[in-house]
Structures are given as structure tokens and as C-alpha cells.
């Protein structure tokens, strides 16, 4: 299940990659499709844990 903080983090990341570092929209679409394909594999659970850990770590950063 994709939560709102994870979706926002990914949206901000993709926006930054497109605007600041020149990621092409086609590459972003390919990465999104790969994500949909990976959700039905054995890698789904470890990737979910990784994303949750990263999101929690970012949430604990102090400016």
C-alpha cells in the first residue's frame, strides 16, 4: 500500500529530477512502469521496507 508521505516523497523526487537534473519524461514513465511490475515480484516486500525506512528517516531530520 502506498501511503501519502511515500507518494509525495516520490513525486518531489521525480519533479526535482526532471526540472533540476534533466531527467526525461520518458525515463520517468519507464521507471514508474518498472515499479508497477516489481510490485508483483518477490522484491515487493523488501522494497516496501526500504521505502518505509527512508521515509521515516527523512521525517526525523531536523533542519
Question: What can be said about this structure in brief?
Answer:
This protein has 63 residues and is mainly α. Helices cover 73% and strands 0% of the residues.
Tell me about this structure.
By secondary structure, the protein is an all-alpha fold. The chain has helices at 4-19, 25-38, 44-59. The radius of gyration is 13 Å and the shape is flat. The model has no long low-confidence stretch (mean pLDDT 80).
Itemize the secondary structure elements and their pairings.
Layout: H1 4-19, H2 25-38, H3 44-59
Tag the structure with descriptive keywords.
63 residues; flat; 3 helices; mainly alpha; 0% strand
Summarize model confidence as the mean pLDDT.
80
Strand residues, percent:
under 5%
Structural class: mainly alpha
Instruction: Characterize the biggest β-sheet.
Output: none
Instruction: List unreliable stretches of 5+ residues.
Output: none
Distance between the termini: 29 Å
Pattern of helices and strands: HHH
Number of helices: 3
Number of separate strands? 0
- Overall shape: flat
Count of structural domains: 1
Radius of gyration over alpha carbons? 13 Å
Provide the helix percentage: over 70%
Amino acid at each position: 500500500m502506498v501511503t501519502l508521505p511515500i507518494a509525495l516523497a516520490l513525486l518531489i523526487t521525480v519533479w526535482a529530477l526532471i526540472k533540476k537534473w534533466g531527467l526525461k519524461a520518458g525515463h520517468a514513465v519507464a521507471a514508474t512502469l518498472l515499479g508497477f511490475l516489481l510490485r508483483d515480484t518477490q522484491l515487493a516486500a523488501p522494497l516496501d521496507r526500504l521505502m518505509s525506512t527512508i521515509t521515516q528517516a527523512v521525517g526525523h531530520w531536523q533542519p
